[in-house]
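User: My collaborator sent over this chain with a note saying "see what the structure looks like." That's all I know about it. Can you take a look?
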Amino acid sequence: MSTTRNSGVIIGRIGLYAFLITAAAFFMIPLVIVFLTSLKDGVEARTGSIFDLPQSPDLDSYVIAWTSACIGRDCNGISGRFWNSITLTVLASGLSLLFASLNGFALAMWNLRRANLILAMLLIGAFVPYQVMIYPLVRMFAIGGFHQTLAAIVTVHVLFGLPILTLIFRNFYVGLPPELIKAARVDGAGFFQTWRLIILPLSLNIFIVAGILSVTGVWNDYLLGLIFAGANWQPMTVSVASLAATNATGVPDHAVNMSATLLTALPPLLLYLFSGKYFVRGVTAGAVKG
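Assistant: Without extra context I'll predict from the sequence alone. Here is the result:
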């Protein structure tokens, strides 16, 4: 009986690993195609199969994409937009995490009247397609005089990211001992002092979870960056989409385009690779508790 049971476990484990490897290989196909194409020269990228290995692989297309590829009339590559994306992501994600943590703490542990109603109203924004709100926001920002500025695109990302991030923080804080807050209040601590001295040091794991979600969402965004960022603060995603598809001879340079695409996708990819275990740790610590 034990032999049969062990055989069933082994077969099940082999099947599980086979499924996981197959699924990983399937989702890796686009990345492999992009990487192989980026190592080819222009002629090879245009005429060969997308699955062919590069005959003479080099990194010239990465240098061109970074330093001299044309985006409209600007032929300085995507390097400038990289720093735009860095600035935008740091500001938008930082403010989103700050406000979401404060909101989650207030809704979970501060005995706020009608906290559940406020949370429900806030979450309505998470289920309304943001495309519906784009035109009203454009009109509001235009009237306010800061449409297509850094302030506009940061504000939009904070507004659209706040509902879900608030829910994540609120669900985490619900699981903390309420005696901590009672003791702080007895000692005379106010709302912000309690959050800074007690809640914040306990929130590292949930900040990692929410931070990964926020950074990935902001960095990978295209539509909001296209509409609200303006020419001076275009993120990398908008620049890659606008990258000149032809060179001086009018022939598409697929290698340069794929190199720019891979450079744009690299930061969130590295983020997941190096922080994946912390993401899982944060989730299991209570990020998805109801």
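A starting point for your reply to your collaborator: The CA atoms of residues 34 and 149 lie 32 Å apart.
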